[in-house]
Amino acid sequence: MRYLIGIDLGTSATKTVLFDEEGKIIASASQEYPLYQPQNGWAEQKPEDWKDAALTTIAKVVKESGVEKEAIKGLGISGQMHGLVMLDQEGEVIRPSIIWCDQRTAKECEEITEKVGRERLIEITANPALTGFTASKILWVRNHEPENYAKCRHILLPKDYVRYVLTGEFATEVSDASGMQLLDVPNRCWSDEVLEKLEIDKNLLAKVYESVEVTGTILPEIAEKTGLSVHTAVVGGAGDNAAAAVGTGIVREGRAFTTIGTSGVVFAHSNKVTIDKKGRVHTFCCAVPGAWHVMGVTQGAGLSLKWFRDNFCQDYIKLAEQEGTDAYDYINADVAEVPVGSNRLLYLPYLMGERTPHLDPDCRGVFFGLSAIHTRKDMLRAVMEGVSYSLKDCNDILKEMGVEVEEMMACGGGGKSPIWRQMLADMYNCKVKTVTAKEGPALGVAILAGVGTGIYESVEAACDKVLKIDKECAPIAENTEQYTAYHRIYQKLYPALKEQYKALQEL
After folding, report:
1. How do residues 36-93 score in pLDDT, each as one tens digit?
2. Which of 2, 258, 368, 370 is most buried, with most CB under 10 Å away?
């Protein structure tokens, strides 16, 4: 039997999982680390924490499994996207990494738009200038910390720093590099035009690979520390959503997934480049060679339900602690008692502003239609439906772009709820499924490592072999009809409130 390792470098922890070639979990380990917020709106982490977490968890799974090191053929890394890691001449970290959720770079985004041009930037990088992306972070360091910028010899993404630690190679791959805003996304290579206009030296950037390509092997000193073999190959890997797509089988035209975590994502595979000229959704290279993905994001998905639970369902939290159950089980039971449309109550899930389709940091959450007849149960269902309407907005834009979805997978915490899955099936008017595998990103990059080392013929063939369907929800025609009517009203609320959101922000 041959084995593969998948590392998932997240914002709160790194998880390392050892799989056999059938996709079965042999051992797993995780290690948490802190997030630093030196100022309001800033978010940083120490790359050294990622390094320590990766080495510790690899060593744990290798030791715990008892697998011979030579049998571990490949390793893939998935990671939080967009983070900036700067190294000096000796390969040492210069400053803490500015990570994906940092919001300090609004002025740098204006600078990028001015220098490249908004339309041209979207043509090349497939996205407008966004504060979360890496390019604006590079300019921020240049503008505010010139002494650190002067020392910089290598720019890496979070997972690619861990790759450097493991292999000594400066490498990245197309899916994660797409989120830097420096990649020519249609052509899958660095954009000389963008780099020239932003005056960023191309030599600072790593070599770009496809996600399944081997980028190096384990260094002798790392093999000694972890128990791996120096022959274990490290492949390109993927950004977190691209890795999750492979780990849930979204590797062919017509397939998509919806993730309901803190934020919500609708992610569709496409065999051709499809770019939204309005910049409402992201287009990135995906982990399948020669293919792309289109992704819409709603900021306050699971966050909305967690906010409501924490503030208005303390009795459920206490009961769950006493009974050894989950407060969300009681919430699901409540929601099941309320009819479609929450008795004419709508919720706008804009607790953290919104990305798709509005790109508005100032909009905020709203209950619309609230009356004396409504109870907590109605409000809970309205929250879940409001998040689902927002995800439907994302899916509708994909359709508008010609990306047709015939089959939707559900994942993330919200994807575990049968109520939420049924809502999505009804609103999307297509089947919503889950897979038995629960380690999406880690399994995804392990599959990529299997392709790179010849265990699997292709990403598609690997997914066919490893992944099995678990649950399936079909749309209910009557519900779809009702949700369509409610969604029309939902869509009119943001334009009606847009100016008032700005006025409120300025008070």
Report:
1. 999 988 999 999 999 999 999 999 999 999 999 999 999 999 999 999 999 999 999 9
2. 258
| Distance in angstroms (rounded) separating the CA atoms of residues 164 and 88 | 13
Radius of gyration of the chain (CA): 23
pLDDT (0 to 100) of residue 404: 85
Residue in 116, 135, 140, 117 with CA at minimum distance from that of residue 178: 135
Residue 190: its pLDDT value, please?
A: 98
Of the candidates 3, 4, 63, 76, the residue with the CA atom closest to the CA atom of residue 29: 63
Find the range with the poorest average confidence among 38-42, 140-144, 253-257, 305-309: 38-42
Q: Token digits for 64? A: 């715990």
Residue in 240, 334, 393, 426 annotated catalytic: 240
User: How many of the other CB atoms lie within 10 Å of CB of 235?
Assistant: 31
Separation of alpha carbons 239 and 81, rounded Å: 6
Instruction: Please enumerate in sequence order all residues whose Cβ is within 8 A of that of 472, keeping only pairs 6 or more positions apart, or say none.
Output: 431, 432, 433, 434
> Quick one: which of 152, 25, 141, 270 has its CA closest to 8?
25
Strands 366-368 and 346-348: antiparallel
According to the model, what pLDDT value does residue 486 have?
98
Report the alpha-carbon distance of residue 315 to residue 483 in Å, rounded: 31
Give the whole-angstrom CA distance, residue 367 versus residue 226: 52
Q: Are 158 and 99 in contact (CB under 8 A)?
A: yes
CA distance 185 to 293: 11
Note the pLDDT tens digit of each residue in 224-279.
999 999 999 999 999 999 999 999 999 999 899 999 988 899 999 999 999 998 88
Report the amino acid identity of residue 340: V
β-pair partners for 264: 260, 298
Cβ(193)–Cβ(241) under 8 Å?
no
176 is catalytic: no
- For residues 203 and 361, give the distance between their C-alpha atoms in angstroms, rounded to a whole number: 35
Q: At what angle do helices 106-116 and 134-144 cross, to 10 degrees?
A: 110
| Residue 411 pLDDT > 90 | no
Helix (H) or strand (E) holding 268: strand 264-270
Nearest to 157 by CA among 267, 258, 238, 58: 238
Cβ-proximal residues to 331 (8 Å cutoff; 6+ apart), any chain:
305, 309, 313, 316, 380
